[in-house]
Amino acid sequence: MTSASPPNICKVNTSTPKSRLHAKRMQQHTASNLKSRRDALNSALTSLLPSFLILTSVESAAATTTTTTTTMASTIEGVGGTKQRIQGIGGGFDILTPNPSNFASLDVYYPSSMTNTQWRMQRVVTSVEGDAGQAATVWTLLGGSNGERAFNEKLTEVYNVYFVAPPQYDVDDALYQYDGKTVRAAVLDRASTLASRLGVESDDVHWAKDSHEPQQITSYTRNKKDAAVELSTLQRKIELSEIGFGSDELIKLTTCSFGAGIDRVCRIKIRYKRGYDELTGKRIVDGIEIVTTYRVLDGVAGIEMPTSTCKSRLRLTEL
Q1: CA atoms of 264 and 52, how far apart (whole Å)
Q2: From 109, 152, 240, 259, which residue has the greatest number of CB atoms within 10 Å?
Q3: What angle do CA 25, 29, 35 make, to 5 degrees?
Q4: Is the pTM of this model over 0.85?
Q5: How far apart are CA 239 and CA 185, in angstroms?
Q6: Of 216, 251, 206, whose CA–CA distance to 109 is shortest?
Q7: Does 57 reside within a domain?
Q8: Average model confidence (pLDDT) across the chain
Q9: Is 306 exposed, middle or buried (0-12, 13-18, 19+ CB in 10 A)?
Q10: How many CB atoms lie within 10 A of CB 251?
């Protein structure tokens, strides 16, 4: 007696037509059930969609309200919602209300031996960094001659420089010690020196040297058609000895345009060293000048971030 062979799962289906009809009906029934489930799921999602949109709109509106509130709050400065002119200026300098404590001396002082002497200045721009337009504008307002050629082409300017005794009001401030003696320093005659550099008459330059304020103010016009330029010292430090001397001044330059004043600010640092000309034996003074410009906004100069730096080489030769 022989045993039955195990079924082969890979055997081709040889069922009768009746069995194939039954399988087809089962397949149609399964497909119908799947379609019903998909329709039910789509219906459920459709019913939930309005709620989802409403929820999203509410959240979006809340976010917009929060952003608007933050933006509005950030524009309020000062106590009680009042906007103040100076708010967190950092290293800025208030040029509208200068403090007298910013001045270490009433003027820039030079060695006593330079009193009542006249010198020939040779000045040439050696380098410019940053915003060249700003540097050129300030260079011109400070008295730079020959238009901007001397600035752009680094031509040598030549003009006369005068030193005089200090005004009566700052005689005591101008005293210093040299070789065990008390001597009185000289000061730069800013009016005649600026007039020589500009190539104008001395009457076109006004130097408020009779003022008791340490802000030596010089105003000038290049010609009768030009508006005046006013130079005001806001801050000053000096160094003085018979060998080397120099100054560090923060200067406000004010011009007028369409009836409104325009303020610019620069810092001028100068360091001099004395010597003698080997050929003529005359006294000479060699110097380096660095002029730094700053952006001014709402009466505050951003002295922590310069916009340009202009370096010049100077030589004074006694006449």
Answers
A1: 59
A2: 109
A3: 145
A4: no
A5: 12
A6: 216
A7: no
A8: 77
A9: middle
A10: 21
- Assigned domain for 43 exists: no
Q: Name 181's bridge partners.
A: 178
Number of compact structural domains in the chain = 1
Q: What is the dihedral of CA 298, 302, 306, 307, to 10 degrees?
A: -20
Side-chain half-sphere exposure of 118, counting CA atoms within 13 A = 6
pLDDT band at 47 (very low <50, low <70, confident <90, very high): low
Compute CA distances 258 → 227, 229, 299, whole Å.
11, 14, 19
Question: For residue 185, what pLDDT is reported?
Answer: 95
Q: Please compute the mean of the pLDDT values over residues 238-254 and round it to a whole number.
A: 90
Q: Regarding predicted confidence, which is higher, 291 or 101?
A: 291
| Domain assignment present for 285 | yes
The yes-or-no verdict on residue 14 having pLDDT over 60 is no
Tokens 């401030």, located at residue: 173
DSSP 224: T
Beta bridge partners of 297: 300
| Cα 103 to Cα 92, 99, 236, distances in angstroms | 17, 8, 5
Query: Taking residues 147-153, what's their average pLDDT?
Result: 77
Question: Would you state the structure tokens that stand for residue 104, as one six-digit string?
Answer: 């270490």
Average pLDDT over residues 224-237: 85
Q: Residue 126: how many CB atoms within 10 A of its CB? A: 11
User: Can you give the residue range of the structural domain that contains 117?
Assistant: 93-318
Cα–Cα distance measured from residue 35 to residue 209, given in angstroms and rounded to the nearest whole number: 101
pLDDT digits (tens, 9 = 90+) for 48-68: 444 444 444 444 444 444 443
Q: Is residue 266 domain-resident? A: yes
Strand partners, 263: 254
